[in-house]
Amino acid sequence: MPDTSLDPARLLRTPDWYRGATRWTQLTLAEDDPVKFSVEEWIDVFRRTGSNATCLSAGGYVAYYPTEVPFHYRSKWLGDTDPFGALVEGARSLDMHVMARVDPHAIHDDAAAAHPEWVAVDAEGQPRRHWAYPDIWVTCAYGDYNTEYMPQIVREIVRNYDIDAVFANRWQGHGICYCDACKTRFKAASGFDLPRVTDPADASWRAWVAWRRERLTQMVVRWDREVQAIRPNASFIPNMGGASLMEFDLATIEAHCPFLVVDHQGRHGLEPLWMAGRNAKRIRATFRDRPVVLITSVGPEEPVHRWKDSVTTGPEMTAWIADGAGHGMLPWFTKFNGVIPDRRWIEPIAQGFDLHARIEPALAATQPACEIAILDATTTLRLHDLRQRDAAEADEKGFCHALVEAGLAFEFVSDHAMTPDMLDRFKVLILPNARCLSDDQCRMIEDWARRGGNLVVAGESALAYEDGTPRDECGLATVLGTRVAGPTRGPLKNTYVQLAGEHPVNEGYQGARRIIGGLRLTAVAAEPDTQAPFLAVPDFPDLPMEEVYPREEATAPAVVTRETAAGRSVHIPWNIGATFWEVLAQDHQRLIENAVRWVLGGPSMVEIEGRGLFDIGVREAPGERLVTLMNLTNPMAWKPPIREIFPSGPQEVSIALDPGARNPTARLLVSGQDVPVTVQGGRAMVTVPQVDILEAVHLTWQEQG
């Protein structure tokens, strides 16, 4: 039977309306669309894609309705039409949910002349012209434009149209604004002048990060209250990525954002397909039960070369949607420009949405479940500028890819939201490079380890306090059994680590005495109750070639393992994650996998065997488990766009059963077929004949009465 709780019509205009908004169409209009695009054509797109919700351009930079708010710029082609209103009416005729999109990041000359205080100012004191379209002005996100003026537009839209929410794009500002209002407010709040550098070590920068977080949080609250004052069941939904959660007070998000939207519209550069699902894991690391939407663009996503009104390949679109859906994200596609000169995106989007529809009931009935978690280093990352975070996350991404290659399912835990109960859901916690941790955070992790948790700690984790101040010792030293023996050095070249003795962590390196080391090294000494399966080879020159040989014997530990009655730990005091992310040396993947499997102490909840690369998701409820298999086997798995799909299989899937489980059965939700189940050693064994893009093994059993 269909799950009627997901029926959009049943939830129309109720407090829980967003729970029926599970497949979204976003139409971002161009200014000349009012005289060029077809409303009826877009209503047909809603139908063909099976969308039950839509986000439509309303106002802000350009108004697509007959606004009466002063300085709210109307499209030059608007005339006496109301394209926004016509789209709202058409969507409501299909029982769809509707969200109005506003964009407050820029204004035109008349508004800037009348209100110069609305314009952002650069570090040289000059009002900021738009970087891509110099005819207009960039707004200050932290002042009266967002807090006083934009609420007038929000009130007008919510009052005049039958909508469920207001969605804001580019609302968070574009770096530091040096306008007089920002200078005055920041000085009064912090005592500092506005910073001139984006350096986590700079006290004024850290103060600005906190002040910006407070200003934007206040804006979210203000806009949401304006919406609900007119429509109590509606909401303000800010556009944000997983990293954006660190920029807000969590209680504010919980109170004012019933669902979260991640604006990671596709891959660019060298970026693997599993990055779509990573968004889901990072959001639920903070808000486990909150619905999360992933925006997918129909065009290529290149930050330097922007072709926004374009179409990428169909397999790329479908695969990006599918990986997000396989990890519980709700699909949303966005099309820029209401005119459709290239229709090749419609069918791939419909296919991706159909994949989600096939697994949606099982996703809704289950919760994420696995033994392995990566610590999302929010405390560290929030000290970095947005432009620096990609590099700051390299260690975590390296660990993610190593686990994907290993066929190990994993989740995230956010260090600024973790609780003892949250940690107790997992057997293994990985810290790829969580440099900044408070004493309380370290104590919580240590207490969890003493209750039986198992740790893999790498890089410079816990070597600084939450404000970036260096520690004398690692904050997790008492659990890891290591001591800092020297400063962190790097970046270095030509470093190696040497195998020492026999240990499960250094298995699989037959024929090798040493392997590549890291680029940043922290010297450590180890306690007597530890082992060192790898030793650090003292670094030596990489040129001239005649000088490329080690001068000293390897004696200092490079990997430290410890096993106690409570649990196990592995300490890798160098940046193995970032080095693997950059170099992709198989030896580093093996070391990460060996470390995780050793501390896990046995098979994972789900193991797969077969050729191919898969991103695995695991969910459960009483009497059932859902295993999603996203097929990443593709020559373009690292570099978009995918040209075609390469089916992979068969895959032998081994799934742990709960004690007392009887008569397990399995169904493949995407292909729609039942498959045999055999039971071996408390595990259900299922053969998946073939995976095209996505398959979901839905295992159910009877529980012992």
Automatic annotation (TrEMBL):
CDD domains: A4_beta-galactosidase_middle_domain. It holds the Pfam family GHL6. It comes from Halodurantibacterium flavum. It comes from the Bacteria. This is Family 10 glycosylhydrolase. InterPro entries: Class_I_gatase-like, Divisome_Glycosyl_Hydrolase, GH, GHL6.
